[in-house]
Inverse folding.
């Protein structure tokens, strides 16, 4: 335990070696707040593509198209993707997917897919990171 961070055991923590280096300088709560806005935007884009905002007409679809267009992608989409990649590395896959499921409101869907009583340690409630 303790000092041997290079042991390669990624089963329990879900962090890569790069994630261990970055987490020393970044607080996990800060990173969760940092990725929240890009995740919200990705959820809104997914809802727009699925037609959930069709009643709002062009006012909802035009910004979504502009966000992905080559003219604006370097200024908007690429920094958001970089923040999401940073969040995945720092938080690890389990916490990152938990945050993404919350933003996309996909919790009930994933609970149906996951095996019951697998002892995942997450605790199902989502509010236990002390």
């Amino acid at each position: 335990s303790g000092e041997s961070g290079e042991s390669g055991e990624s089963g329990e923590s879900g962090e890569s070696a790069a994630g261990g280096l970055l987490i020393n300088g970044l607080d996990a709560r800060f990173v969760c707040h940092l990725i929240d806005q890009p995740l919200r935007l990705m959820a809104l884009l997914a809802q727009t593509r699925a037609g959930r905002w069709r009643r709002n007409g062009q006012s909802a679809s035009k910004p979504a198209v502009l966000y992905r267009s080559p003219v604006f992608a370097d200024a908007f989409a690429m920094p958001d993707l970089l923040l999401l990649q940073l969040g995945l590395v720092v938080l690890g896959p389990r916490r990152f997917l938990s945050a993404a499921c919350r933003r996309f409101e996909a919790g009930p869907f994933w609970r149906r897919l996951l095996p019951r009583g697998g002892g995942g340690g997450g605790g199902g409630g989502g509010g236990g990171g002390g």
Remarks:
- DSSP finds five helices and no strands in the chain.
